[in-house]
Amino acid sequence: MLVSLHSHSGEFCRHASGSLEEVVESAIAKGFKVYGLSEHVHRFDMRDLYPEEAGITLEDLSATFERFTMMSNHLKAKYADKIELLVGMETENIRQGDMQRTLDVLKHHSDRIDYLVGSVHHVNGIPIDFDRPTYERCLVSLAGDDIAARQRSLFEQYFDAQHEVIQQLQPEVIGHFDLCRLWDPQISFRDSPTVWHRIERNVKAAVSYGALFEVNAAAFRKGWTTAYPGPDILQLIMSLGGRLTLSDDSHGPHAVGLHYEDAIRYLRSYRVDNLWYLSMLAQSRSLGDQRQSLAVYKEITGSMTVDRSRREREASGNLQGKAMVEHRMQGLIIPVLRRRTPPHSDIRR
């Protein structure tokens, strides 16, 4: 079953290509069953714009994201009989206050956004994945007597920023966990106790609320021999009971499903048997509420089992309405309790 929970299009992301509808059509043509449209949240500071965004304003970025949420939901309805589309937002954590600003954006779009991809792309206010010279500029900006010390500082700050995303936003999907070693994939985080401690802390925090860790196939097109995360973190996630999902992180229709064969071979080499994904379940009509709820599924030899959704975890036993929803697949009937509240409404106010 083909699934991806992380993608972009040139219509709403200037370093991508193609329209959002072309991305959707490519996913349908390639046989995807669930596909996440997950554009970057707009930046909140002019200093954080990329070179290709020269000449535009923060208001322009906000309006572009607004259009993304509208178009993605339009396509979600238009192609509902061909593919299950989910609407996501990929996070940033660049400057102090960005977490609250992200919560404000999420509140504003609460009826249009299904889930979050929790990602970090900057350290010390500098993008670390734009190109090698920019990454090296980031290293130079950090304190340290030598390159090793500065790189350790970069990793520590990256994982601290990631921890803030995990703790404050509780994203359903953790994006490219170890993007910080993009330019040096051979680095072993275990060699630095302070870095590895942060990684363990972050994985445990994400596991505690049931997040999915994406196995991001885009690493292969960046020259890696594995997906993100690398083997050390992949094995840690598995050992701590973390849930893995698959994403192409496509930046255009040409990259939909790209390198999935490589990603699957990588997972099989570490005996990964189960992959998880997100899906929507319609609420009982008897409640008079037509909202849909996000749930987590696990693929096991062709069948699916369902886990408690985010809303149920937030409810902490205080479920409103207690709608009983049945999901049938290959003879399997799974009852799911549902709340009558929109996604993220409790913890993201």
From TrEMBL:
InterPro entries: Histidinol_P_phosphatase_HisJ (IPR010140), PHP_dom (IPR004013), Pol/histidinol_Pase-like (IPR016195). Residues 5-217 form the PHP domain. Its EC number is 3.1.3.15. One of its GO terms (cellular component) is cytoplasm. Pathway: Amino-acid biosynthesis; L-histidine biosynthesis; L-histidine from 5-phospho-alpha-D-ribose 1-diphosphate: step 8/9. It is an enzyme of class 3 (hydrolase). It comes from Mixia osmundae (strain CBS 9802 / IAM 14324 / JCM 22182 / KY 12970). This is Histidinol-phosphatase. GO terms for molecular function: histidinol-phosphatase activity. Belongs to the PHP hydrolase family. HisK subfamily. GO terms for biological process: L-histidine biosynthetic process. Keywords: Amino-acid biosynthesis, Histidine biosynthesis, Hydrolase. It catalyses: L-histidinol phosphate + H2O = L-histidinol + phosphate. It holds the Pfam family PHP.
